[in-house]
Design a protein that fits this description.
single chain, 4 helices, two-stranded antiparallel sheet, four-stranded mixed sheet, 29% strand, alpha+beta
């Protein structure tokens, strides 16, 4: 007996880069903005400059490319300690997305281009943030 079988495989294309820094918590941002709105704006700009260095390095190395299609973004927060609250850690998503737009990796950070953002917080020896782009699932029939 012979039958034809079709294997359907889901393929998710991913690209990622790592920011080897501890990004600020929401509490840090609030404290700067309460001090003075200009201090808060400079703080945001300084953080985005740091993130931009890692983005540009990843672009030069070919680790990431401009995202032409809508994508999911997975952010893995690698934390040395458990001192910071989950919501405080994840607040730096704003800085990451704004930096990706400014550096031409994302067309825009609206839901038209960023379908969803998924977070994972893991213990690590050193603080860092891994940002992964997941393109829409494509079906491949073999």
């Amino acid at each position: 007996m012979c039958r034809n079988e079709t294997n359907i495989q889901e393929v998710i294309q991913t690209e990622s880069f790592v920011i080897k820094e501890k990004l600020p918590s929401l509490n840090d941002v609030i404290a700067k903005n309460r001090a003075n709105r200009y201090v808060g704006a400079k703080f945001k700009a300084d953080i985005e400059k740091i993130i931009s260095v890692y983005i540009n390095n990843a672009l030069k190395k070919g680790e990431i490319h401009k995202q032409e299609k809508p994508c999911w973004i997975a952010i893995e927060w690698r934390e040395k300690t458990k001192r910071r609250d989950v919501d405080n850690i994840q607040s730096s998503t704003k800085f990451i997305l704004d930096s990706l737009v400014k550096n031409g990796v994302l067309i825009d950070d609206s839901r038209k281009y960023v379908v969803n953002v998924v977070h994972l917080i893991v213990p690590a020896k050193e603080n860092s943030v891994k940002v992964t782009f997941c393109n829409e699932v494509e079906m491949i029939i073999k």
